[in-house]
Specification:
Elements: E1 3-6, E2 11-14, E3 19-25, E4 28-34, E5 37-40, E6 45-51, E7 55-64, E8 70-81, H1 84-90, E9 94-96, H2 106-126, H3 131-146, H4 153-156, E10 160-172, H5 174-289, H6 292-306, H7 317-337, H8 341-349
Antiparallel strand pairs: 1-2, 2-5, 3-4, 3-6, 6-9, 7-8, 8-10
Helix pairs in contact: 2-3
Length: about 350
């Protein structure tokens, strides 16, 4: 923004790089341009400051379509002052002398002019469209219609150039917009429900597949367990058969060993019996050859072994006499006979 310094009789103006200043002295242009600095007389000078930069003007207005539906158009118009001197003459951009506080400035006037012209063009164009077309292609068609805004005589006569127009939205009323959104919302909801059902169906299918896999696994495990039980039974039978065969072999070996032992014992018994029989036979032969007295003595000796112990023995003369007589008679007979008495004598010695 420009700066004006006060001095007793003069004023000093120092402009900025974004404002175009026009200095009129007695109705004639004395200074103009951007970034000017000059002295001027306050009593005979008028200063106007026109923006030298591009200006953005947002506009928002309502229009009625061909089928009597209200729509809202939101747009932005970009413009600049192509002829600042002409604009300063047609619009109030004066900064000196100061204007009243309630007076409209040139920026406000330009905004009003551009906004009204843009609204007029857009309303005329929207009136030729129905609601469906306006909502479907209204942004492009309204922008194309507003492109002719730069040819308006009112703007060219004021030195304003239109640089571009952007249409942001063409929207219906809230109730109409809600009604229009309902089918789309319902369709989207139906798609969402269908996706949900498909996801649930897929989940059920996957669960069924998992259940079938688990059942197949259980069947496979049961089959393998059956094989295991059969194998274990076969192993147990084989172990029992092997144990029975081993027991049979052991029993046979024990029987054979007992038979061998029995045979050996029988043979030993027969040998012993034969030896005993031979001994008895020999003894009987000896007994047959021995005399009566010897047999009596042997019988007494064998019987004495079985008698209880005798504490006192009384020997009478008659007994001694009879025994001595028998012994003497037996000895004489033996001496007269010769050989046979000798073994008996030895046996008696024993």
């Amino acid at each position: 923004m420009a700066t004006i310094k006060r001095y007793p009789a003069l004023r000093r103006f120092l402009g900025s790089a974004s404002e175009y200043v026009v200095h009129l002295h007695k109705g004639a242009v004395r200074h103009q341009g951007v970034g000017q600095a000059f002295w001027f007389l306050p009593d005979t000078s008028v200063l106007s400051e026109v923006p030298a930069t591009d200006q953005e003007l947002p506009v928002l207005f309502h229009a009625v379509t061909r089928d009597q539906q209200d729509v809202t158009v939101q747009a932005t118009v970009t413009y600049r002052f192509g002829d600042p001197v002409l604009a300063s003459r047609r619009l109030d951009f004066g900064i000196f002398p100061p204007r009243p506080g309630d007076a409209a400035s040139g920026r406000q006037q330009v905004g009003s002019i551009v906004g009204q012209l843009a609204q007029s063009v857009a309303v005329d164009h929207v009136a030729t469209l129905d609601l469906a077309t306006a909502l479907a292609s209204g942004v492009g068609s309204v922008r194309a219609a507003l492109a002719s805004l730069g040819e308006e005589p009112r703007l060219t006569a004021t030195g304003i150039e239109i640089l571009g127009v952007r249409v942001l939205a063409v929207s219906p009323e809230a109730a109409v917009e809600k009604a229009l959104r309902t089918p789309v919302r319902e369709r989207l909801q139906a798609e969402a429900d269908r996706a949900t059902y498909e996801r649930r169906a897929l989940a059920v299918e996957r669960e069924r597949t998992i259940s079938e896999n688990e059942l197949a696994s259980q069947i496979e495990l049961a089959a393998r367990r059956e094989q295991l039980v059969a194998q274990e039974g076969a192993n147990m039978r084989r172990e029992a058969e092997e144990a029975a065969a081993a027991a049979l072999v052991k029993a046979r070996s024990d029987a054979e060993r007992r038979e061998i032992d029995s045979t050996a014992r029988d043979a030993e018994t027969r040998r012993i019996d034969a030896a005993y029989a031979a001994r008895e036979a020999a003894l009987m032969q000896v007994y047959a050859q021995a005399g009566k007295d010897v047999l009596t003595a042997l019988a007494l000796r064998d019987g004495a072994r079985k008698l209880p112990s005798i504490g006192n023995l009384t020997v009478t003369p008659d007994l001694v006499t009879g025994l001595l007589g028998n012994l003497a008679g037996g000895a004489g007979a033996a001496a007269s006979d010769g050989g046979p008495a000798r073994p008996d004598a030895r046996r008696g010695e024993r």
